[in-house]
Each structure stands twice: as structure tokens, then as C-alpha cells.
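Changelog note: in this version the structure field was regenerated for every chain. One regenerated record is shown below for reference.
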Amino acid sequence: MAIQTLSFISLILRPYVKQTIGTDGWEYLFAQVDTYRNFDGEIFGLGIRIEKYLRDLGFRGSQAGLEADFKENDIPHRVVQHVNWLEHADVKPLIEDIKPLRAFKLKQPDVFTVSPLDGAIITKGYQCDWPPNIGNIG
């Protein structure tokens, strides 16, 4: 899934990493989850800047270069240039009830859903599309 680019997201985190993250860290992070706005099961958009805390938990920051596990959110197209696992997509509606939006997603071809602010989950090829475009299949 992908998460909508929102002004309150100040940090993008890839939570599932090779290094071990302690239970206390997971409990804190998952207490911040809003499944319709900031966590899609693959990436996490946090509304707080907690870079030092994330490093203390074991996540890699900017010192890891393109392999960093999190990146501060500033200008979306610049955020994705600083890590190799994240991309920014223009989500275009295929039906009238949906408005265009921008979303962050992992760089994988098997991401097919996004959740706009209203909490609905829309699916690529049915209600919306983004590059690489697959067109309307539904």
C-alpha cells in the first residue's frame, strides 16, 4: 500500500529492517499508528521528528546514505532522492468520486493500494492509477 503525502508527516520510516529493534521501540512506534493516514504496513509517516530516538532504537539515519531507514520529509521529490527504497507517486483517479493525490510508496511493483484522507482504500487499476500505469482493469 502507499500513504498519502500529508503536510503533518515530518519523517518517513521504513520500519521492517534487518537490524534488531527492541520491544520498547516497537511499542512506542505502533502507538503512533493511524492506519488510514500514516502507516500502510510497509512505510510509516511520523508527525514528529525523532531521529535521535530512532537511531537509539537501531534504525539507520542519514549516516547510512541511500540505505538509511528513515528520512525527514521536506519537499517530497527531494525526500525520495535521499533513500533508495522510497518513491513518490502521482495518483490519478479512474473514477469520478476520487480526487488526485500524491503518495509515498516503497519502490516495488507489488504496491497496488493507497488510502486517501477519508479512510477508504483505493486500488490501482480499479479506482486509480500511478506510474508505471496499468490503466483501468476494473
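Spot check on this record: The helical segments are 23-31, 51-57, 76-79. Residues 1-138 form one domain.
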